[in-house]
Amino acid sequence: MLGVDANPHGRRRVAVVGAGITGLATAYRLERTRPDWDVVVLEAGEHVGGKARTTVRDGYTVDWGPNGFLTSAPETLTLARDLGLEEELQPAADAARRRYLYLDGGLRPLPASPMAFLASEVVPPLGRLRAALEIALATRGEGEESVHAFLARHFGRAFADALADAFVSGITAGDPRELSVDALFPRLRAMERAHGSLVKALVAGQRSARRKARERAREQAGAAPGSGSGGRLTSFRAGGMQRLLDALQGGLAGDVRLETRVEGLERRHGGAGYRLHLAGRGSGAAADLFDDVVLTVPTPAAADLLRAHSPAAADALAAIPYAGVRVFGLGFDRIDVPRVLDGFGFLVPRGQGVRSLGVLWTSTLYPQRAPEGKVLVRVLAGGRLDPAMLELEDAEALAVVRRDLRVTMGIVAEPEFVETVRWPQAIPQYTLGHAARLAVLDDAQAGLPGVHLVGNAYRGVGVNDCVREAERVAAALTAA
Q1: Max Cα distance, the chain (Å)
Q2: Where are the alpha helices (DSSP H) in 307-433?
Q3: At what angle do helices 434-446 and 311-318 cross, to 10 degrees?
Q4: Is 288 helix (H, G, I), strand (E, B) or coil?
Q5: pLDDT, tens digit, for every residue of 135-185?
Q6: What are residue 298's DSSP bridge partners?
Q7: What is the pTM of this model?
Q8: H or E element: which one contains 224?
Q9: CA separation, residue 221 to residues 215, 216, 217, 228, 464 (Å)
Q10: CA-based nearest residue to 128, from 166, 163, 159, 167
Q11: Does the pLDDT at position 241 exceed 70?
Q12: Dihedral of the alpha carbons of 52, 146, 208, 344, in degrees to the nearest 10
């Protein structure tokens, strides 16, 4: 027996499955647009936020997922303003603009402009010579390419070998030889189509930005902190990215049912709506009826729910892999860190004798994230090329990370603050064939009216991408 009628008061009912950034933003926008609807958020876990969670302890603030959003795109900035968080925005410190690569036994500054690569030590001399010829040798690609193949075709194999890993590891923790440049970096493909040469495209973009700088100056006089032509990484002064999730949850009028797992999706007789089979402490009824279902869960879970309705969609969802990552937040006394932390942090290409993917200098990025006189670093390890890192016990993994910090930064002291989290399904991988999989999913959704697939597994892995997708699906639902 059903515990809840689909429309007990004639209200349209929408289930949002998953309480990460995408799910909460979708529910928030739906409620603001259609307050007469009944919007229910169903979350299997104990907390909202998915991987965008934050720990605050002993004066340290550690984000376990995204550490901010770029203000160059309007989505998240607008959402923060709508939630009344504008005064709490915290742009990254100017010092964090500098980034490094750990290469050949040392931290090498990453060039800040395309032309600076020609004199940079991060690429071998012959590689720099080949990269300098990109304008003359550039050709337009045919068909889908991996990130590594795309960079190698434009700048040479030495350039791609040196930088492709770092190019993607900080975004996806993935393998540049299997990731699709068309799906992950569509702007690069668009630049190639427009200019042929990426160097020409980048130089043209810089010239255009300079021409528009004076025009923007007056507009930016009233803009939020950190906004600008290229955008600036921005978070929140208290609570990190968790502040955004808490504000979204607090802004919802409808139910947010935690510890409620959706175990089955059944189409009602006649095709009018769906019956969701629920389990868990917050399930309420054994089943519930909804007119629309928004699935924001990882693709393996979505595949399980849709397999009975569309095997093709389930297969396409199951074919989207994930990189698992391990994140450490480590606090040290400033005197125990011999290197000046004068930047964002550094990335590590494979083959450098360091297992970690990269280290973020959080207390440089956001100084208030550590007590005075202390240093906070965040270490990312594991990824697509090192899944075994997730199988280590915490003490073993910490020993690996501490060795990496000793090798790269000279830190030998034991950290005074240690927190860690393991994400087996951390970041979806847009591998070759991603666009074809999305086409299959679009066709499948056309045959399942009222079911929507959104989240970072489809059209962008960043916070702005998630919020943009939430806005898109909310607009589609309210327009129907």
Answers
A1: 72
A2: 311-318, 362-365, 394-409
A3: 150
A4: strand
A5: 777 777 788 999 999 998 988 888 888 888 888 988 999 999 999 999 999
A6: none
A7: 0.90
A8: none
A9: 11, 9, 6, 11, 23
A10: 159
A11: yes
A12: 40
